[in-house]
Structures are given as C-alpha cells and as structure tokens.
Design goal:
Largest sheet: none
Structural class: mainly alpha
Distance between the termini: 38 Å
Order of helices and strands: HH
Strand content: under 5%
C-alpha cells in the first residue's frame, strides 16, 4: 500500500530511542554471529554496515 499525503509512515525515517537502538544493535550482532558460513556475502556486509552506523550514532549521542 502507498502512503497518502500527511500519513506518518510516508518517507520518514523511524525515530528510535537510545534504548531501542541499543536493543537493535544487540539483535544485529546476534544475527551476524548466527549466520551460517555459506550465507551471502552481501547480507553479511549489510549487517556489518548497519552495526557500524548504529555504533557511531550511539557514540555521538553520548
């Protein structure tokens, strides 16, 4: 479904609290550790990139 004008979900990033970001970072690290050795390299790279982005965002907010 497409968002209509004025709808909150339309092309806005999801704002998360610091606790939610910490939980998401922990979940991403667990997901990266649980990946099988034959998992796609692009998946591994995207997880690593998201982890780095969250870490820098959390360190900047302190």
């Amino acid at each position: 479904m497409r968002a209509f004008d004025g709808q909150l979900s339309g092309s806005r990033p999801i704002s998360r609290s610091t606790e939610e970001k910490k939980r998401q970072l922990r979940d991403l690290k667990e997901a990266l550790a649980a990946l099988k050795p034959h998992a796609a390299a692009s998946l591994r790279q995207s997880l690593t990139a998201k982890i780095k982005a969250l870490e820098t965002e959390l360190s900047a907010s302190r």
